[in-house]
UniProtKB/TrEMBL annotation:
Superkingdom per UniProt: Eukaryota
GO molecular function: GTP binding; translation elongation factor activity
The protein's name: Elongation factor-1 alpha
Transmembrane segment boundaries: none
Lineage: Eukaryota, Metazoa, Ecdysozoa, Arthropoda, Hexapoda
Keywords of this entry: Elongation factor, GTP-binding, Nucleotide-binding, Protein biosynthesis
Length: 95
């Protein structure tokens, strides 16, 4: 892959004839490809329990002018949808 020249990023490049592609075997089945976009598309998202309570550990909080306060984290369990009222613990702040 050459990000500088764009080779094997979105489609197979003729400038790298030695590269025959990649393949991986996993319990969900095989995946293979010849470029970076194929590899990114082949990533399987981890299974997350959506039937449990929302758990979203915060990594950071940004204050962006014109936008407001933006909490950043990863949903570990549950589902977060636009308009959901959430409580931030341990401060017990609701937004």
């Amino acid at each position: 892959i050459s990000g500088w020249h764009g080779d094997n990023m979105l489609e197979a490049s003729t400038k790298m004839p030695w590269f025959k592609g990649w393949n991986v075997e996993r319990k969900e089945g095989k995946a293979d490809g010849k470029c970076l976009i194929d590899a990114l598309d082949a990533i399987l998202p981890p299974a997350r329990p959506t039937d449990k309570a929302l758990r979203l550990p915060l990594q950071d909080v940004y204050k962006i002018g014109g936008i407001g306060t933006v909490p950043v984290g990863r949903v570990e369990t549950g589902v977060l949808k636009p308009g959901t009222i959430v409580v931030f613990a341990p401060a017990n702040i609701t937004t």
